[in-house]
Amino acid sequence: MNFHREPATFVGQVNLKVQDLERSISFYKEVIGFTVLNQSERKASLTADGKTVLLTIEQPEAAGPKQPRTTGLYHFALLLPNRSDLASIVGHFMKIGQRIGSSDHLVSEALYLSDPDGNGIEIYIDRDPSEWTWSGAEVAMTVDPLDFADLLSGGVAPWEGLPAETVMGHIHLHVAELRKVEEFYTKGLGFEVVNRFGSQALFISTAKYHHHIGLNTWNGVGAPRPDRNSPGLKSYTLVLPTEESRTAVVGNLKAIGADVTEENGTYATEDPSGNRIILVV
């Protein structure tokens, strides 16, 4: 099952605000392995395959340092196609001295780091879905140490940037509370809760993926929205399988009182914590 194509609904592209565009371009090219698809004075579109935009970075006017303890991005997550690709980027990080975190989540193996503005990044590979453990509607996930010895035991191929098959695997967001947010994403957008991490986080997906979106209150219940020009999340896209499904989602969002705007065929909404979502087909 490919969880990042029809009939699933999934995150396609993440759009970030940064303080210094050139600094961020250098980081995303040299450390993460993106290539620049196009660039203007204040914005760059980044790609892994030379044609599909996975990430945009934009420098707002009068951008200052990233505000702490707000809603917004916790991390975006790049899904690599093969375990050998994860080993390769570990070798790259070791070579350049890049500090990283890591975890074995049972469903996946993941690396963690931040860009120069403190925007969180996960780079991961999935274990085969046949290895995931489900208990009813919930999938087992944990935060165990990553076994680097095993990961690197097959050898480390030279790093050549992000593989062309890299996709935006998921996004994880800071929110101000979970009750209304859960209603928005489940009743409005049609996701299902697949894991609850105590009372502070939940993970949601379509098509029985381990998660397309994570939501947490780790910046505090009632966390404020960041200022407009603060580095962080500008928006992200949700890719819906058909025009009919988008029409249904728009209707469901309006039925629960969420605002949906449409301009030149572009539909946009915000979750209850101000995270902006572009609905695409």
TrEMBL record:
This is Glyoxalase. InterPro entries: Glyas_Bleomycin-R_OHBP_Dase, Glyas_Fos-R_dOase_dom, VOC_core. Pfam families: Glyoxalase (PF00903). Residues 10-126, 167-281 form the VOC domain. Signal peptide: none annotated. It comes from the Bacteria.
